[in-house]
């Protein structure tokens, strides 16, 4: 670059800001954006506090009920409990799939539940339109406003006759184009940066918020790169358009296609290409596999008889009544282990289908950077499918361990006459609570490499296209 290029770009940017100030573009946009941000923030904070309070009260209630039990361990296993997916402060920014996949897991003997009780089940508007969140504004509304103002940047110069005047002053078309890009990108940075700074400050002083700062920084970087991409697209359309009306129609169609239609089409194609069995069919498979056995391992009765013979040989006795342990506890755990095995057997195929769908959507993000941004945003917020799946796996592990402890506690106490064993509250109180932590940031970044590469590749492609098109179209 020549030495006089920087002063030239600075003067072009200053000119754009003076025009924006004179036409009240910046002030109007700022009022619109900050009004939406304020409304969304209030709703988000209210919903977050309500959800967090509900979780804390429910956890305390179930824990108190659990500790107060004075009953048979297996009865306690049937009584069960509930596990709640922990909230984090960034998840309030982008709830992602939490509203649709549920946040509650039921712990119960003999039954393998799924994560359930989603907000969308009882909210038809949420199913159709999604919740009004900060991420919705950042992903849809700001890009639309940015496309509108950037797409008319060059067409305004052409229609007002100032384009030829600028060329007569020695400004090259490429310099003018990049001045427009820089000016409009600075517009959007000035609009959203205060919001991001407030989020950073809030995380810094919030309890455990420091653990999320790395995620938020990557989130901010992803959005700022995407806004640069949107700016390039808007200015490119302005370069190729002769009139502002044509440019506005083009960007509106582009926004609808990339941000509304393509994500739905990609999701529909993933579901059609890799269809999932229904929940009822899956539960029937697990039940049938448990009763009849898998891999030729015999029916429920046959497996029980073989296990009984194994126990009699192990303890060298002839009858179950002679065993030094409670046979009910051991038998219950044996069948529980086999049911877990059957569940894992059929769920592995279901999980493979889930992974194929996610891989398809990841590849679709290469063709649509908006989809890549959306997936990156959910991943950093801990609300994508990977985090949902991780919670489900950890919850199932806790459930299986808890049921095992209860059954083995029963097995340690042989039946004394007709009186069943009753565990005291001290036993239930020493059982550990469910603990869930977010996966390491490096792991999440590794899974979002394709999305990050997609955004950078589109930036490079649009930059090169804009550079060469501006040389030929504006001469």
From TrEMBL:
Keyword Oxidoreductase among record annotations: no
GO MF entries: ABC-type transporter activity
Domain of life where this protein originates: Bacteria
Record's signal peptide: none
Entry keyword Transmembrane: yes
Listed name of the protein: ABC-2 type transport system permease protein
InterPro entries: DUF3526 (IPR021913)
TM region positions: 25-46, 129-149, 182-205, 217-239, 245-263, 451-469
Keyword vocabulary terms for this entry: Membrane, Transmembrane, Transmembrane helix
GO cellular component: plasma membrane
